[in-house]
């Protein structure tokens, strides 16, 4: 026959051409069945798939319509299997169950801060759609996560971040063999909220610098404005990264708190990805490498900064970690300065000089860095030099960043110091 089929009686079975499978009529209920190979089982054996269609009692003398129906089912099933990659996974797996597997998978691959974001995202996802089966997901379920976050007072920016985590989780499920409907991965993203962050105005920056000049550790904030240091970079800065004779500062570590694997058993260590370079300080605080090559940089120090750091080094409390700006001393042990107390001091400085964000709130620590970038831009500093000073990562300026002459950066920072009313020490 043209379709490779031959009729077999209710107790017989006819094999068609190689690769097209086997078709036969079952004697118990006279249904037509077709069986074909569809990949491999988890143990490596050949997997076979069967489809059925009804037949005529007592045999099918005029069986063309039944065979045609069977062929359509074979074709449709093969298309489905091709789309699903011959998957050998449970179709009953829920979003909640897979999220647990996924978090365990990525823990050894992503940075701790990224993992904490993904973990928070999965808590929201499970609360919103955890009971839904992966194979039954629809774009409406994806939107339901954003709706859940809005009901709980989260911004659309948070919804956007969590949406990214959710889509990565579903793509990982698809790669692992689960049937994720393709249109789910194309669901529309939440809109990013309006960001009210802005640069600290120059006039306010000058007020701050005049005030912190009278503080013992005022160099922390002076260098934040002048060098554009990130908070974690400043808190992780050690004296061996500062060369006052050469007038340079090397940014190569950040202070971060890592999560314990088991909080009830600190000896179990800390959760971190494979190949993650860290130096343990005390408690959960570590020095970790910047997340990108652009974050690892050498900055020139203008004369004012050299003088400020030299003065501070004579007053700074001794600490076993060599931190430039350490935290409190408790029972004779000096701890690293944590991000919360650092923010508290920054807000106290703002209150002391009477400045605030136009929205009425205190400026965020990171908005100091915005001010540095804005000032360098206003001074006409070339983009490649700004990128090098700020430690940004951008494909468009990577080549320029790699070949920046440190003398250009020094000249730019001297201009910034002059604009900030910082005069070289006499």
Description of the structure:
The protein has 426 residues and is α+β, with helices and mostly antiparallel strands. The protein folds into 3 domains: 14-84; 95-185, DNA polymerase, domain 1 (Orthogonal Bundle); 202-256 and 291-419, Intergrase catalytic core (hpI Integrase, Chain A, Orthogonal Bundle), CATH 1.10.443.10. The chain is built from 15 helices and 12 strands. The protein has helices at 64-84, 95-106, 112-129, 139-151, 156-175, 182-185, 202-212, 219-227, 231-235, 303-315, 339-353, 366-378, 383-390, 398-402, 406-419, and strands at residues 14-15, 22-25, 32-40, 46-53, 242-243, 248-251, 254-257, 278-282, 285-288, 297-300, 329-330, 333-334. Strands 1-2-3-4 form a 4-stranded antiparallel sheet. A 3-stranded antiparallel sheet has the order 5-6-10. It has a 3-stranded antiparallel sheet with strand order 7-9-8. Helix 2 runs antiparallel to helix 3, helix 3 crosses helix 5 (156-175) and helix 8 packs across helix 12 (366-378). The chain is elongated. The chain starts with 13 loop residues before the first strand and ends in a 7-residue tail after the last helix. The model is unreliable at 1-20 and 394-405 (pLDDT under 50).
